Amino acid sequence: MDSIISDSYAVHFNEGAFKALNAHLSEKKYSTVFILVDENTHELCLPSFMAEINGEHNFEIIEIESGETNKNIDTCIGVWEALSELGADRKSVMINLGGGVLTDMGGFIASTFKRGIDFINVPTTLLSMVDASVGGKTGIDLGNLKNQIGVINQPVMVLIIPDFLDTLEERQVQSGFAEMLKHGLIQDPLYWDTLKTVNGLKEMKDHILTSIEIKNNVVLQDPTEQHIRKILNYGHTLGHAIESYLLNHGTKEMLLHGEAIAIGMILEAFLSHKLLGLELSSMHDIKTTFLERYTKIEFANEDIDNLLKLMKYDKKNSHGKVNFVLLKKIGEPVADIEIPVELFKQAFAYYKE
Question: What is the pTM of this model?
Answer without folding.
Answer: 0.92
